[in-house]
Each structure stands twice: as structure tokens, then as C-alpha cells.
Amino acid sequence: MSNTPLRKGGPAARIAVLPGDGIGREVTPESIKVLRAAVKRPMDFVDLDWGADKFLREGVSLPPGAVEMLRDEFDAILFGALGDPRVPSNQHAADILLGLRFKLDLYVNARPVELLHDRLTPLSGRTERDIRIMVFRENTEGLYVGVGGIFKKGTPDEIALQEDLNTRKGVERIIRHAFAYARQHRLKRLCMSDKSNAMTFAHDLWQRVFKEVRQEYTDVDSRHLYIDTLAMEIVRDPSQFDVIVTCNLFGDIISDLGAQLGGGLGLAPSGNIHPGATSLFEPVHGSAPNIAGKGIANPLGSVLTSGMMLDFLGWPQEAALLKEAVRAALRENKVTPDLGGNLKTTEVGDWLAQYVSKNS
Ligand code: NAD
Ligand code: IPM
Ligand code: MN
Known about the structure:
Blueprint: E1 13-20, H1 24-38, E2 43-47, H2 52-58, H3 66-73, E3 76-81, H4 91-103, E4 108-114, E5 132-138, E6 148-151, E7 159-162, H5 168-184, E8 189-194, H6 202-214, E9 221-226, H7 227-236, E10 243-246, H8 248-261, E11 269-273, E12 279-283, H9 300-313, H10 316-331, H11 345-359
Parallel strand pairs: 1-2, 1-3, 3-12, 5-10, 8-9, 8-10
Antiparallel strand pairs: 4-5, 4-11, 6-7, 11-12
Helix pairs in contact: 1-9, 1-11, 5-6, 7-8, 9-10, 10-11
The structure holds nicotinamide-adenine-dinucleotide, 3-isopropylmalic acid (IPM) and manganese (II) ion.
3-isopropylmalic acid binds at residues 93, 97, 252, 284, 286.
């Protein structure tokens, strides 16, 4: 990713750490452990306790002034996950996670799909060379904006509306980002995916903007697939994709599908990015209430996420070291049960920290 290194508080990188709920609180400390061992440059970590406990205790989700503080005082946010069965409305997660995506204008959701060890893919005959795709999900618009309402709730005449909001600016900047990324990384094949055959207004805009922007990137081999076809094609032959760009909801779904092709949700990283401004890095997985508290959550997704954060901070060597450590853990089966290992979350973190200390 091409980003101007930021430094809000002098020479040290200032990282806000927001573990959140459930396994977010188990995997994030492991990432910090590995970051401390791998990065010799100055980094300040500041813990934030936003999440379900605080919401239930104090009624506060995203505290007043939070956005300005993050924007002005921090270079990046390392995020775990939000979601708690005690908050069935998911209100705190919407306020904090979607709130930060929208209010920090983190319009690029970069979700790489990458197979780091052949044995991890459920697709037979596929190898690491076949599965390496950068998925760019639009992150500030679409069906996520919360425009809508319920009329006559609870009656037989009930009406529920959820609007799909697409702006020319929003569509253009994510499509442009995807093309620029493809060019910069010499990735030849870009696919824009929508559902313009059914969503004839919203995705007509995607079609028109795509056709305009692609004229400027004739060096990139670009094409369009409807999202249902993309879902099928990515399973049939993932090697045909280098870069995918799509809207908010489709990007959410296709990134979980992609995560599974690369070994599962426990391994998938992501960055919520506004190039050149405070950005938020989180594993793709959620708070996993079904395994929370058992000490078996896979921390590799969070560690790879931390690597994306280091890249964003302008430290590609340290980022590469984290990825190499994860590859080594996979090779040597130093992994949690979801990947067929028998290590605890903290043991994987310890192993990675030792690996990076020895190799940095
Ligand atoms: P989930 O990602 O939490 O879990 C889906 C499945 O994957 C579960 O079986 C879980 O055990 C497994 N899994 C996920 N991460 C894992 C890991 N690191 N190691 C091992 N196994 C892992 O999705 P869900 O169950 O649909 O959602 C649970 C809660 O998380 C909900 O409240 C949801 O809204 C929230 N959520 C939050 C985020 C986020 O904060 N970014 C993302 C997705 C879901
Ligand atoms: C994700 C999650 C979120 C999303 C939820 C928790 C709102 O699934 O980050 O992928 O849909 O964006
Ligand atoms: Mn998701």
C-alpha cells in the first residue's frame, strides 16, 4: 500500500489498541506481544476499553470526542472484534466499528485473500500460487449507512426499509484505489463486481464509473462479473483473480468466502484505510462467542493484521517478518485447533514472538 508514513506524536508511532469483545480480547494481546518483539522502532500503545462491558455498565459505546482523539493523536488503531450475546441489538458494535469506518472516512477496506500453506485450502489441487487476491471492499456507503426505518412495527402491515446509498465520489474513489493498487503492484487482472442486472440504479452508477476509470488504466486487464458469478468463479478457479473491487455488503460476504479458501476466518486480516490518515486494522473474524474464554482462538489473523498496519506505517521489513513468522508457524504446525494444531492462543503468540526475536 502506498501511504505517507504518519507520525502524530513525534518519532514514535502512536497506536490505539481496541481489543473489544470475546476473542478480540484474546488475540489482540498476542499481536502486541509479537509487535513488541519484532519492531525495534518506537511504538506507543494506548489501550481503550470500548466494548460490550463498558456499554452495559455505562451506556457508552463510542465515547464523546473519540473520533477527534483518534484522528488527531493516533497513527493507527489495532482492533480486535465487537459483538456480545448480551447486546442482541449489536448497537455498540454498530456505533464503534461502523462509526469509526464512517467518521474517520476509512473508505478502503483491504481484505487480502492469501493461501499461506497448501494444506489449508478446502479446494482440492490448489496451491499457494493459485490463491492470492486483494479484495477491496467499499467501506463507507452502500447498505451499511443505516438509512431506513420500520413502519407499523409488529403489525401485519409492517414495512421495513433499508436504503442502499451510493455516491459518485464514494464509488469512484474505491474503484480508483483498486486500479492504482493493481498498477503499483504490477497485478494484471482486476475484477469489478456488482449486481447491476438487478440493482439497476445503484449499480448502474458502479458500471458507469468503472467504465470511465478503466480508460485511465489500460495497462490493467479489467473486467466485470456479477457478484453471484464471482462467488462461483472464485471457488471454481481462484487463480484467475488478482484484485477484486466491490461494494460494502458484497465485499463483506466475498471476504469471508475468500477467508475460507485461505484456511479460515482465524487467518484472515484486514485494514480499514483512509490513505494518509489514521486507519483501523482488524482481523476479518468476529468475537466468536462460541469459543471465547477457552484460550483457543487463532491469533494469526490478528498478527497478519498487525503486519498490514506496519506496512501502512511505512515499515515493510517488519511487516514481512510478521508474515514470515506466520508462515513458519503454519509449516511447523505451531497453531490452534481450528488449523489442526493443539496450541493455545498464548502459546502461538509466544512461539511467534520468539521466532521474530531470533530473526529480526
Ligand atoms: P465469527 O467470525 O465471530 O465466528 C464465525 C466462526 O468462525 C465461529 O465458529 C468461530 O468460532 C470461528 N472463528 C472466528 N474467528 C476465529 C479465530 N480467530 N480462531 C478460531 N475460530 C474462529 O462470526 P459470527 O459468529 O457470525 O459473529 C459473532 C459476533 O461477532 C457477532 O456479534 C458479529 O456481529 C460479530 N462480528 C464482528 C466483527 C468485527 O468486529 N469486525 C466481524 C464479524 C462478526
Ligand atoms: C466485518 C463484520 C462487520 C461488517 C459487522 C460486525 C457489522 O462482519 O467486519 O466483516 O459487516 O462489516
Ligand atoms: Mn464480515
